[in-house]
């Protein structure tokens, strides 16, 4: 690495670039950055532990005062159910109770699923890899896709997971649709059609799927890790608060229990909250549709810039300072 970079030998020391008797440029970035940002606060905490830190947890823990999480955002014009040309029926926060279901019926028809507005449709758009918790789905899917539930998958990745979903689509042809591809048009249709989105990730720095599903009034069911934990507030039926469902441990039974609880709210709580069909579920959707956090993002960025300015002012006088970020 010394020969490739032309760096001086003193940089290849344990407190600089050296890593397991080699060099690590990411470590160098973390060492020399004025400030470090991640894409969620919870992920910033997680990577300071051995399980998530990939050998850099000690350095990250040492720099925790110079580290901040900023949740990702989405393009609210691209993902807008009121104007989206890729979905079957447009809707907004005022009329979604009547119009959103049309997207489900049309997608069921297109994918050769049982056409029934009362089915609980779960969407999953993902890279099909170990990180995404797909082994948990494999463990419980025979109990997940009961007579009242459908699951629609879009994505590509590891052959074992592609073939897994193909197998279940063959086994449960009227309940499981495996679309082993990436189609932006189909993805938009699924965001609008599904009742819930499942994200049981092993780890997730931020995640975009849950943010997009909020935009379409589709309720996320997530594991409490990284940005999923920071962006999804678990529903509390007694206080009538929350905008999604979540589970803490990486465990298939726990995930299935939360999915079943979500279905209980969807099917059985018709008179809770708004007095319409699936009233409590509609209340959750209504709380998630306008989920934007531009003001919070600006406040965090201004705080970071203030801290960097303070860091820069403490450096050598007379030397021009160029603040350096390291983004994880």
Automatic annotation (TrEMBL):
Its EC number is 2.4.1.21. Keywords: Glycogen biosynthesis, Glycosyltransferase, Transferase. Residues 114-257 form the Glycosyl transferase family domain. InterPro entries: Glyco_trans_1, GS/SS, Starch_synth_cat_dom. GO terms for biological process: glycogen biosynthetic process. The keyword Transferase applies. It holds the Pfam family Glyco_transf_5. GO terms for molecular function: alpha-1,4-glucan glucosyltransferase (ADP-glucose donor) activity; alpha-1,4-glucan glucosyltransferase (UDP-glucose donor) activity. It comes from the Bacteria. Residues 5-61 form the Starch synthase catalytic domain. SUPFAM superfamilies: UDP-Glycosyltransferase/glycogen phosphorylase. It catalyses: [(1->4)-alpha-D-glucosyl](n) + ADP-alpha-D-glucose = [(1->4)-alpha-D-glucosyl](n+1) + ADP + H(+). NCBIfam families: glgA (TIGR02095). Belongs to the glycosyltransferase 1 family. Bacterial/plant glycogen synthase subfamily. Synthesizes alpha-1,4-glucan chains using ADP-glucose. This is starch synthase. It comes from Roseburia inulinivorans DSM 16841.
């Amino acid at each position: 690495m010394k020969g490739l970079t032309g760096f001086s030998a003193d940089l290849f020391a344990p407190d600089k670039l050296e890593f397991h008797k080699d060099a690590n440029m990411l470590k160098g970035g973390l060492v020399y950055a004025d400030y470090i940002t991640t894409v969620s606060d919870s992920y910033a905490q997680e990577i300071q532990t051995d399980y998530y830190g990939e050998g850099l947890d000690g350095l990250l823990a040492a720099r925790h005062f110079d580290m901040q999480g900023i949740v990702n955002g989405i393009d609210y014009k691209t993902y807008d159910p009121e104007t989206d040309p890729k979905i079957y029926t447009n809707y907004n926060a005022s009329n979604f109770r009547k119009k959103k279901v049309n997207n489900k019926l049309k997608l069921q028809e297109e994918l050769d699923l049982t056409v029934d507005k009362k089915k609980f449709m779960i969407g999953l758009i993902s890279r099909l890899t170990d990180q995404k918790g797909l082994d948990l789905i494999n463990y419980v899917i025979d109990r997940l896709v009961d007579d009242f539930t459908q699951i629609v998958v879009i994505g590509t990745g590891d052959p074992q997971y592609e073939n897994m979903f193909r197998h279940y689509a063959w086994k449960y042809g009227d309940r499981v649709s495996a679309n082993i591809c990436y189609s932006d048009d189909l993805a938009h249709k699924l965001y609008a059609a599904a009742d819930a989105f499942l994200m049981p990730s092993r780890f997730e720095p931020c995640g975009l799927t849950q943010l997009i599903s909020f935009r379409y009034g589709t309720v996320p069911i997530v594991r409490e890790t990284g940005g999923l934990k920071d962006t999804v507030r678990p529903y509390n039926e007694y206080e009538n608060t929350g905008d999604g469902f979540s589970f803490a441990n990486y465990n298939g039974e726990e995930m299935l229990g939360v999915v079943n609880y979500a279905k209980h709210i969807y099917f059985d709580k018709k008179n809770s909250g708004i007095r319409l069909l699936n009233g409590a579920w509609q209340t959750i959707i209504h709380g998630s549709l306008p989920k934007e956090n531009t003001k919070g993002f600006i406040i965090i960025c201004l705080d970071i810039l203030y801290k960097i300015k303070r860091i820069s002012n403490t450096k050598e006088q007379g030397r021009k300072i160029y603040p350096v970020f390291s983004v994880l």
